[in-house]
Amino acid sequence: MLTYDTFYIGGEWVAPADEQVFDVVSPASEEIVGRVPEASNADVDAAVAAARKAFDEGPWSRTTGQERADAMARLSGIINERLEDFARTISTEMGSPLGFSRMGQVLAATMALDYYTGLARETAWEETRAGLLGPTVVRRAPVGVVAAIVPWNVPIYVSMLKLAPALAAGCTVVLKPAPASPLSAQLLGEAIEAAGIPAGVVNIVPADRAVGEYLVTHPGIDKVSFTGSTAAGRRIASLCGQNLRRVTLELGGKSAAVLLPDVDLSTALPQVINVGLMNNGQACVAQTRILAPRDRYREVVDAVVEQVAAQVVGDPLDEATTIGPLVSAGQRERVEGFLAAGKKEGATVALGGGRPKGFDRGWYVEPTVFSDVDNSMTIAQEEIFGPVLSVIPYGDVDDAVKIANDSRYGLSGSVWTADPDAGLDVARRVRTGTFNVNTFMLENCAPFGGFKESGLGRELGPEGLAAYVEYQSVNLPAGYTPA
Asked: Is residue 377 within 8 Å of residue 342, measured between CB atoms?
């Protein structure tokens, strides 16, 4: 059991303002496996004050890109040295299978950090442009103090999508982890301290939604970066709008994997199923709508069922497990509500549809495949966030594109075909922020974010760095050459 009684604020481990705590419960055993303090408004005040002082008075915002990159490289090295600690902690606190925790949670986080470390070294933080009346220096200045609010499903990776570009830009950060996954954030605090990142540059305060809202509206915050539900994103956008506060929102998804008529199921489906069920289906980019050509529909359904039936449900710390438990009892109840809706609205349960046998403890749901799904059904429109796939028939390619776009979300998607040119044509017609042809990945060099209700702004790539930068133009007299 991991027990913490302090917060990482201002470069020190400090006692909380009151005695409230979060008990971290294993979704596999339903036993308490950790405890951390629960931040109050007073703790947020302290964290924002530390970040404000570090930005306004401290060295970080005035360091060079090279100096920031050196510190970021040290942080990456320390996280990699403790990769197994991070992975096992994440699997324990939120149920991610250990193999995914290593690769998709921790290694992916350090890869993003490494990308921004390189960008911090390469970016021209100031450039001189020739104007009509004289030279202009265009500066990329850090936006200031950032409130970074992250979800429980990929806690360290999503933290790094915000922390890495913020650090590269010279910002300071108040990081608010979710109550369900605060233990890995405490490990991150230890790594930041060991890396020698200056006091107050990163401050970590696990808190509930009400205190998170207090952080969003705090007068000491310059920018908010949030990943979570679309409903919460709407609220945060409204609050930021009232204060004209910069905001980035990465929200929900209901992505489609389009199987074109010439697809080779033997090569495509293992990847499609992996993308649909990764992290127990608790991923915003999960491809949970599988669009199959009508004349191959039954063949596709049978093949999907065969692939999903081969998944191993079990303890997330068991190396053989590919599907672990959902994060909480409430999340399982929510997913079971969608299972009931699918059955009520006429979809066929081709596999699963309930709780797996032999699991008396733990918040498990059977990997489930629905067939005979119409795209208007609840299970095809709502983000379920569980191991549930819907196989939807389509007529021609135009119909497939129409179905893929028939969603209020627009985060991710994919197409699978023997003809990559045809796949690229489909990609250009589907309105999502990220799309994949015969693969699935999030490239660190490319922007990630959503169309429609999947969010505002972008993370990753140079575009992700730009979200933490203010552009300042300094006009100089004719004939003056800046040093």
From this structure: yes
Active site residue 19: no
Answer yes or no: are the C-beta atoms of 253 and 455 closer than 8 Å: no
Return the C-alpha torsion angle 443, 258, 106, 157, nearest 10. 70
171: annotated active-site residue: no
Cα distance between residue 211 and residue 38, in whole Å? 10
CATH of 2-251+454-474 given 3.40.47.10, 3.30.70.100, 3.40.605.10, 3.20.20.60: 3.40.605.10
Residue ranges covered by each domain of the chain: 2-251+454-474, 256-437
Q: Which of 38, 284, 383, 459 is catalytic?
A: 284
Q: Which of 250, 366, 383, 459 is catalytic?
A: 250
Q: How far is CA 4 from CA 31, 70, 167, 347, in A?
A: 17, 29, 26, 47
pLDDT, one tens digit per residue, over 422-444 is: 999 999 999 999 999 999 999 99
Instruction: Please give the angle made by the CA atoms of 174, 280 and 331, to the nearest 5 degrees.
Output: 70
Secondary element (H or E) of residue 398 = helix 397-405
Residue among 481, 474, 472 nearest 61 (CA) = 472
* pLDDT tens-digit map of 92-110: 999 999 999 999 999 999 9
CATH class of 256-437: alpha beta
Buried b (16+ CB within 10 A) or exposed e, 76-91: bbbbbebbebbbbbbb
Q: Which amino acid is at 176?
A: K
Cα(382)–Cα(377) distance, integer angstroms: 9
| Average pLDDT value for residue range 150-173 | 98
> What's the predicted TM-score (pTM) here?
0.97
- Mean pLDDT, range 200-218, rounded to an integer: 98
CA-based nearest residue to 178, from 354, 349, 330: 330
> What are the φ and ψ backbone dihedral angles of 255, each rounded to 5 degrees?
-80, 155
d(CA 241, CA 481): 40
